[in-house]
Amino acid sequence: MNIHEYQAKELLAKAGLPIPIGRPAFSIAEAQQAADWVRSQSGKPIVVVKAQIHAGGRGKGGGVKVTKTPEETQAAIDKILGMQLVTHQTGPEGKKVGRLLLEQGIDIAKELYAAVVLDRQKGRLVVMASTEGGMDIEEVAAHTPEKIFRQVIDPMIGFAPYQARELAFALGMKSVGTEVVSQAASFFQTMVRAFQELDCSLLEINPLVLTKQGQLLALDAKINFDDNALFRHPAIEALRDLSEEEPAETEAKKFDLSYVKLHGTIGCMVNGAGLAMATMDIIQHYGGMPANFLDVGGGATQEKVTAAFKIITADPAVRGIFVNIFGGIMKCDTIARGIIGAVQEVGLKVPLVVRLEGTNVELGKKLLAESGLNVVAAADMADGAQKIIAFSKSSSADTSTKAAH
Q: What is the mean predicted confidence (pLDDT) over 159-168?
């Protein structure tokens, strides 16, 4: 689960991390009031107007403006609120800006980077820091990896004070003064504590700035949460902005389905994340593009299978559906019954190829064969991928011909 920058900063402030003076706004009138409040609290005329969407690169896309007068602030508010903001993370369609963050201007001496992430290879949390704040960390890793400093957290010992100080030294804080070293070390320790207490999957501050007055501030913040731990945090769950989420993904969560919408034309329904990834790979190998990642899980019920099929068929981009099931815990007849029930309820307007293997496979195939549905059986995964790609191209051609007439 993702949240907006202003929400992330509110959580960081509660955890004890310093943030700039700021206030969110959901309308032009609220934004005007927020800007006036920021000026009164900071005692300075500079106000930064920041678009609030779940995507990075907002500044490059025109979604962040530093304003020096009330007139400039008003012009930025009018331009950004309601705009369709396109960044490298939104895709060409962009995202509509429905929220703003009005924030004080900061006298920046240094821009740094700090994050707490899970290193899946090590199976441990890692605190990362860099002197290259404000840049995409992927770019820094690719071109100047020596500028990224890491401290791995031992789960038995925790994040040791010496590790926090070493990160501060690596960022050059010693040259600024011992007080700033202590401040930076405390900042990193608080970040780790917040990450663990909030059950985050990512806590990133970019940039982390050192002001000319010698204070560290989280100038921007991005927090992602572990969905599996949200039951422990109802207050965080309440921060969810459904307008930022794909409707189909929201619907899938209701049935505990792992679904991610993609940009292809082949709908996929698979059991098991590994098999789902392999299915997408083989579809691309044979020249197709998957329309989604959908893992119904190892112990899916008929209800979940039916819901999954409905979600796939509701996508207008889908030109063919490939069901690829290896039944272990999941029984092939359960899949078959779910498909039959869903097709009878919503209809089938695109080709459907089904590959079943494993527990109760003969019963599953028998149910599909006797259903009267236009289902094409596949001998194996490669055969199924090739068949659905061929059928989907024919389906697309037929659709284009009908549209022309």
A: 96
